[in-house]
């Protein structure tokens, strides 16, 4: 028997009316099979909501009724009075436990007879039919607290038609669109289950509070991931050794590689954010951002021992000065420290003029240095704005999505949160599309501008600045209070 | 497993974060929450974040046979410190031997000794603090190549590939965020070990030479510097210890008598007052302690603190650590099913139920399933002439369905049409009915399942496919599926 204080809800109904969609949305589990072919769910599947191992409630996805009229017929034949209805249902399950014919009915009735409440799901986009009566009658016979849920699968609107027949069998009837319900709507439905049993109120309220906190944390974690991605992508550069620095075709290939690496970083970030929201296999349809040559810092340079020419010259100056100082000291100050000055000059000049030869020098067959291309970082000041806009777009879509949806997450081009491509950094007021910008307080606008400006200039972001950026992102995703 | 330094832990945390990318999200959450609950005694404040992260990696190290690059790094660090000490002491000894070389012909020039043994160090110390104070990463990188400890690390890296890998991790890829590197601080810290050893080497050599030989100190210069000026210089240097060791503060007469000229020395036959010039050693030793050893000791503490802070910053700023802390702190909320999805296997034994090859309209018995009652015009549109109508399903009992079948047997027709709502799923009770009907009518008599769409709609291909799949299991060669 199920613990009577543990809220348990059996999601029951006609096949293909969205039971699994409801379960998928409420349990945030995309692995629930949602098939157009009836009878794909053959055994019950439990979805316990657990907090550190303690179960607060559980949902039970059940197979749909397949032979409801035959089952009801058996029960009517074996019942003597209304008072023995529940016993008759129990007898039915006991009798037909091993009977393939009533496999679905036995499965779905078992948790109800164990104490689970009933959540009867119908599709409000199709009309009521008399074939549902037998199902609802059987459920009434169980005597368990019940609620009817009108789900919306298609475009039709038959909600009013359903109200009257459902009202005859269920005290509580609710509308719920499993595909489009906001997070807060989901929580409301969850807490609404407490109307079925008074002792369910406390655990369900607690579960709702925990789920709200969890959503808040998910968004906060996502904002940190996005902040880190902005910095990583804005700082990213590619160093490629080359024998022929003038080969423009090869340079173009490397530039393309640079772009691909940036896209891979963004895509990896998207995946991490999706996983935070418990989407493991989400298909995503998002266009890639395109960088022009002007957006990139790109140069051909060389290195010796991993040092650039500037670094090598500095090293030469310091080394020369140190050597000269030793000469000065050796002469007991007679050279008036000219040694260190001359040493620095010679060291610096030697490094500057001799470096080209050093690059080609080979020691034990290995070159001391070589030419290389440095591609990136992206120097366009709009770059972090574009990235942030795209990331926020993705995050908002995720927050609005339910786990019942099986289609790809399409991130539209038109979503111009930060004015991707149209944002005038110098004069944000002139930007064509400034929805986020407009929604921010004056102080926050200037904060965001400062932070993104720092990022675009590859300046370090302090921990406090990272938190500020995260806070601004979080404030734009108020989905837990939608 | 032995406890690692904060640096070793940092390297391991980075490596573990990389490994965790391959792990399943649920497993990660469960593992980290379990560790977090074990660390409940640590308040979940930001001050404790580092402790909690170190406890996290420590637990993971203990629980699994993981490769710990942090151990290699710690080993490399210990060796780098050891080599710094040996090298520093050796160089100190050699430096002192060369500066304090005395063969009795001329005294050791105090000015050279002070400049070489102390002056250079003070200048190096000043440069170090200026660099750390006004950080310029490129300059630091360039200067660091001359740092002896950097060379030690590079040599160690050459000798041991695993160390090299760990060492290169110091400077690359630890974090995408700039300004949180710790290599300059680490080199500065290691340099102080080298410098302390250098000072100990010099001091030891001085004491050794003083003990086993007689040393005489003097000073000379070509410049026109008065004894007063030099005396003032020596007195000023002695300020820190003049009240503690007054005997080590030179007086004017000693300074004056210690001045010598190399040309004069060759002419003089009697030499200087050797025992008086020898008293300078204590002054030199205290100069080394106060201007060489002690500043380096303070620098060791300061750079040690800076190094620790840099490690803390780098650890906390490591991408992925905030997620680890969150997984440890946040309750493990699970709403997913622990059971695997089990789907029924639909066996279609007869592919393709669509389309009768009827050249003309046929007279049919129409059985309306669950109040699905299309008008005759709709039936005619699909080539069906209704000669009689019966009902089944819906509110009817199974017994009444059987009566319908009995009645159907009596009807003379060219086919039986069962009208169904296309938007409703094919239930097993429908296929039961069709199978029972077939048993009661000739096997060749066509049964046509006719799907009726919702008002103003047509039957969708998906609905047809769903019904086709469901009816396919009946293996009935005279069963057809059509739609209005």
Work out the count of structural domains of chain B. 2
Q: What is the string of helix and strand elements of chain A?
A: EHEEHHHEHEHEHHEHEEHHEEEHEHHH
Biggest interface, CB < 8 A: A-B, 84 and 72 residues
Biggest sheet strand order of chain B reads 5-4-6-7-8
Q: What form of chain A results from the Cα inertia axes?
A: elongated
Give the radius of gyration of chain A: 34 Å
Tally of contiguous helical segments of chain A: 15
Helix content of chain A: 40-55%
Biggest sheet layout of chain B: 5 strands, parallel
Structural class assignment of chain A: alpha/beta
Envelope shape of chain B: rod-shaped
Rg of chain B, nearest Å: 48 Å
Give an overview in words:
By secondary structure, chain A is α/β, with parallel strands linked by helices. Chain A has three domains: 8-179, P-loop containing nucleotide triphosphate hydrolases (Rossmann fold, 3-Layer(aba) Sandwich), CATH 3.40.50; 213-298 and 378-481, no CATH class; 306-367, no CATH class. Helix content of chain A is 49%, strand content 15%. Chain A is built from 15 helices and 13 strands. In chain A, helix 6 (159-169) links the parallel strand 5 (146-151) and strand 6 (172-176). In chain A, helix 10 (309-330) packs antiparallel against helix 11 (338-360). The longest helix of chain A has 35 residues, at 201-235. The two termini of chain A are 38 Å apart. Mean pLDDT of chain A is 82; it is low at 414-426. With 484 residues, chain B is of the alpha/beta class. Chain B folds into two domains: 69-327, no CATH class; 362-483, Rossmann fold, CATH 3.40.50.11460. Helices cover 57% and strands 8% of the residues of chain B. Chain B is built from 19 helices and eight strands. In chain B, strand 4 (362-369), helix 16 and strand 5 (384-392) form a beta-alpha-beta unit. Chain B starts with 5 loop residues before the first helix and ends with a strand. Classes of the chains: A alpha/beta (482), B alpha/beta (484). At the A-B interface, strand 2, helix 2, helix 8 and helix 10 of A face helix 2, helix 5, helix 6, helix 14 and helix 15 of B.
């Amino acid at each position: 028997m199920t613990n009577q204080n543990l809220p348990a809800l059996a999601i029951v109904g006609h096949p293909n009316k969205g039971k699994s969609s409801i379960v998928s949305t409420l349990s945030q589990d995309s692995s629930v099979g949602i098939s157009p072919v009836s009878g794909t769910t053959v055994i019950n599947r439990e979805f316990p909501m657990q907090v550190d191992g303690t179960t607060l409630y559980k949902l039970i996805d059940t197979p749909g009724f397949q032979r409801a009229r035959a089952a009801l017929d058996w029960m009517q034949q074996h019942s003597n009075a209304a008072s023995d209805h529940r016993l008759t249902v129990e007898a039915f399950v006991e009798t037909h436990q091993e009977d393939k014919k009533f496999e679905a009915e036995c499965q779905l009735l078992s948790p109800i007879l164990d104490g689970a409440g009933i959540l009867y799901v119908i599709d409000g986009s199709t009309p009521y039919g008399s074939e549902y009566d037998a199902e609802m009658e059987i459920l009434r016979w169980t005597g368990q607290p019940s609620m009817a849920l009108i789900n919306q699968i298609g475009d039709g609107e038959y909600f009013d038609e359903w109200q009257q027949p459902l009202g005859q069998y269920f005290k509580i009837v609710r509308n719920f669109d499993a595909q489009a319900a906001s997070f807060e709507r989901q929580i409301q439905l969850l807490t609404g289950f407490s109307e079925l049993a008074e002792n369910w109120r406390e655990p369900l309220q607690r579960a709702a509070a925990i789920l709200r906190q969890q959503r808040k944390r998910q968004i906060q974690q996502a904002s940190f991931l996005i902040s880190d991605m902005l910095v990583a992508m804005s700082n990213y550069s590619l160093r490629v050794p080359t024998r022929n620095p003038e080969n423009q075709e090869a340079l173009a290939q490397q530039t393309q590689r640079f772009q691909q690496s940036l896209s891979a970083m963004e895509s990896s970030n998207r995946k991490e954010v999706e996983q935070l929201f418990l989407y493991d296999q989400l298909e995503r349809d998002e266009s890639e951002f395109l960088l022009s040559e002007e957006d990139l810092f790109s140069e051909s340079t060389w290195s010796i021992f991993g040092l650039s020419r500037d670094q090598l010259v500095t090293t030469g100056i310091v080394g020369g000065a140190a050597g000269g100082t030793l000469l000065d000291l050796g002469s007991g100050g007679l050279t008036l420290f000219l040694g260190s000055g001359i040493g620095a000059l010679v060291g610096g000049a030697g490094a500057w003029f001799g470096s080209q030869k050093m690059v080609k020098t080979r020691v034990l067959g290995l070159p001391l240095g070589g030419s290389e291309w440095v591609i990136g970082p992206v120097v366009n000041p709009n770059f972090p704005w574009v990235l942030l806009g795209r990331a926020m777009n993705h995050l908002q879509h995720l927050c609005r999505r339910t786990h019942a949806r099986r289609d790809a997450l399409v991130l539209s081009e038109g979503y111009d949160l930060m004015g991707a491509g149209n944002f005038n950094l110098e004069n944000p007021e002139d930007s064509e599309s400034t929805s986020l910008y407009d929604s921010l307080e004056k102080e926050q606008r200037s904060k965001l501008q400062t932070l993104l400006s720092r990022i675009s200039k590859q300046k370090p972001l302090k921990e406090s600045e990272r938190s500020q950026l995260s806070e601004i992102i979080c404030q734009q995703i108020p989905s837990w209070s939608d | 497993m032995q406890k690692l330094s904060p640096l070793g832990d940092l390297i391991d945390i980075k490596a573990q974060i990389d490994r965790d990318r391959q792990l399943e999200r649920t497993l990660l959450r469960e593992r980290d929450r379990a560790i977090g609950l074990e660390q409940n005694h640590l308040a979940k404040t930001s001050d404790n974040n580092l402790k909690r992260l170190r406890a996290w990696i420590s637990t993971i190290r203990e629980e699994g046979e993981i490769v710990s690059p942090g151990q290699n790094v710690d080993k490399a660090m210990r060796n780098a410190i050891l080599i710094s000490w040996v090298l520093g002491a050796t160089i100190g000894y050699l430096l002192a031997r060369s500066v304090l070389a005395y063969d009795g012909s001329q005294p050791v020039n105090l000015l050279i000794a002070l400049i070489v043994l102390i002056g250079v160090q003070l200048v190096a110390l000043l440069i170090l603090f200026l660099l750390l104070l006004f950080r310029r990463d490129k300059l630091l990188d360039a200067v660091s190549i001359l740092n002896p400890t950097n060379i030690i690390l590079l040599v160690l890296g050459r000798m041991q590939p695993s160390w090299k890998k760990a060492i290169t991790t110091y400077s690359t890829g630890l974090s995408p965020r700039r300004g949180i590197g710790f290599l300059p601080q680490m080199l500065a810290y290691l340099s102080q070990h080298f410098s302390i050893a250098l000072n100990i080497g010099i001091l030891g050599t001085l004491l050794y030479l003083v003990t086993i030989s007689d040393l005489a100190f003097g000073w000379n210069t070509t410049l026109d510097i008065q004894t007063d000026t030099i005396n003032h210089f020596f007195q000023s240097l002695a300020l820190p210890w003049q009240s503690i060791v007054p005997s080590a503060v030179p007086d004017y007469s000693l300074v004056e008598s210690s001045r010598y000229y190399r040309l004069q020395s060759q002419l003089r036959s009697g030499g200087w007052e050797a025992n008086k010039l020898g008293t300078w050693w204590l002054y030199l030793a205290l100069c080394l302690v106060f201007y060489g050893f002690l500043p380096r000791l303070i620098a060791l503490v300061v750079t040690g603190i800076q190094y620790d802070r840099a490690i803390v910053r780098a650890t906390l700023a490591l991408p992925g650590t905030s997620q680890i802390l969150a997984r440890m702190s946040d309750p493990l909320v699970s709403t997913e099913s622990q059971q695997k999805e089990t789907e029924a296997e639909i066996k279609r034994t007869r592919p393709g139920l669509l389309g009768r090859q009827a050249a003309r309209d046929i007279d049919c018995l129409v059985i309306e399933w669950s109040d699905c009652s299309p008008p005759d015009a709709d039936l005619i549109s699909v080539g069906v002439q209704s000669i009689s109508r019966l009902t089944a399903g819906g509110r009817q009992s199974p017994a009444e369905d059987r009566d319908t079948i009995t009645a159907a047997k009596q009807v003379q027709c060219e086919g039986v049409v069962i009208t169904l709502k296309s938007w409703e799923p094919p239930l097993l009770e429908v296929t039961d009915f069709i199978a029972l009907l077939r048993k009661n009518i000739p096997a060749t008599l066509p049964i046509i399942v006719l799907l009726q769409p919702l008002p103003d709609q047509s039957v969708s291909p998906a609905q047809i496919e769903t019904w086709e799949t469901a009816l396919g299991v009946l293996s009935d060669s005279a069963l057809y599926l059509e739609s209005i």
